[in-house]
Amino acid sequence: MPPLPVRVAQRVAMKAGLLGYKRGLAPGGSGAPRFLVRVDEFPHYLAADEPGRFGIAASRTFHGTLATAGVPYLMAILPRVATHPLDPSATGDRPLSGEEIAFLGQMGSERVTFGLHGYNHRTRYERPQRHSELCGLPERELSALLDRALGELEKAGVRPRVFVPPYNRFDAAQYPLLAERFDVVCGGPESVPLMGFHPGPQWRGDAVYLPCYPPLYGTADECRPVIAELVERQVGTWVPIVLHPGWEAKTPDTLRAFADEIAPYAASWDDFLSAVEASR
C-alpha cells in the first residue's frame, strides 16, 4: 500500500477529475494545489470558562502568525460564547464583546473569510463520542437556531456563506436545510459516521460539501509532510486543511514554519466561493 500522503494525493486527484467534468468547480489539469486553510474557532468555545488560556490573546497570536506569512484562511466564528459548553444541562452564554467584534474587523481586513460555527457550541449530548450542537434537532428548531446565530453575526457586520458544524457533527437529514442557507458546508472526521466518507469538495444538493480528514485535519506539524507531498505531486485542485489555535499554542515555531511553507499555495476562501458560484 502507498504511504499515507500518496494515498491522500491520489484521492484528491481523483475527486478533482470528477468535479471538473461534472460541475466545473475544480481547477483543470495538474498544477500546484490550492490549499484552503480552515481554523476552528473564534472565540474559542472555552473562552468564557478559561479566558486566560483560551481568550482573545491566544487568537491574536495565532492570527498574527498566519497573517504575517500572508496566509488567507477561513475562521469559524461563534455568535455567542457558552459557559460550560460540554455540559448539556448547563445554561448561560454571552454575546461577543466589543474587543472580539473589533478583532473580527481586523481579521476581515487581513484576508480572513468567516464561517458560521453554530450558535454557542453547547453540546446536546454528554458523551464525547456524540458531542453535537445540532444532532437531533427537529427542522423547525434547527432553522430557529440558525436564524438566531446569523442575526447575532449580522449585528457584527458578518454574513457567512460557509457553515462549519460544531464538533463536526450534524444529522444527514439536516444537510438539505444547511445547504439552503450556505454555499459551502464543512465536515471533519466526526462527520464520517453520519455523512459517510466523501473526499471533497463535491456538490451535494444545493451546496458544496467540503469535509477534511487527518492527516490534514490535525496539527501544523502533522500537516507539513503531506503538504510537501501534494505540492510535489502537483495535484492541481482545492485541498482543505483544518487547524485549531488551541492545538498550536505550545508550538509557535512549528506554526510559523507551516505558515511560511503553505503561503505560496494557500488560496483565498473568497476565490473558492467565487468558483462555487460560477459552477452552480
What would you note in describing this structure?
This protein is an alpha/beta fold and 280 residues long. It contains eleven helices and ten strands. The strands form two sheets. An eight-stranded mixed beta sheet has the order 8-9-7-6-5-2-1-10, with helices on both faces. α3 runs parallel beside α10. It is globular. The termini are far apart.
User: Radius of gyration, rounded?
Assistant: 18 Å
**How many H/I helices?**
11
Oligomeric state of shown chains: single chain
Instruction: Give the termini distance in whole angstroms.
Output: 37 Å
Please give the largest β-sheet: 8 strands, mixed
Helices and strands, in order, run as HEHHEEEHEHEHEHEEHEHHH
Shape field: globular
Average predicted local confidence, pLDDT: 91
Structural class: alpha/beta
Going across the biggest sheet, name each strand in turn.
8-9-7-6-5-2-1-10
The stretches of 5 or more residues where confidence is low (pLDDT under 50) are: 13-22
Indicate the topology.
Elements: H1 4-22, E1 34-42, H2 51-54, H3 56-69, E2 73-77, E3 80-82, E4 93-95, H4 98-109, E5 112-116, H5 139-155, E6 162-163, H6 175-181, E7 184-187, H7 192-195, E8 202-204, E9 207-211, H8 220-233, E10 238-243, H9 245-248, H10 252-262, H11 269-279
Parallel strand pairs: 1-2, 1-10, 2-5, 5-6, 6-7, 7-9
Antiparallel strand pairs: 3-4, 8-9
Describe this structure in a few short sentences:
The chain has helices at residues 4-22, 51-54, 56-69, 98-109, 139-155, 175-181, 192-195, 220-233, 245-248, 252-262, 269-279, and strands at residues 34-42, 73-77, 80-82, 93-95, 112-116, 162-163, 184-187, 202-204, 207-211, 238-243. The chain is α/β, with parallel strands linked by helices.
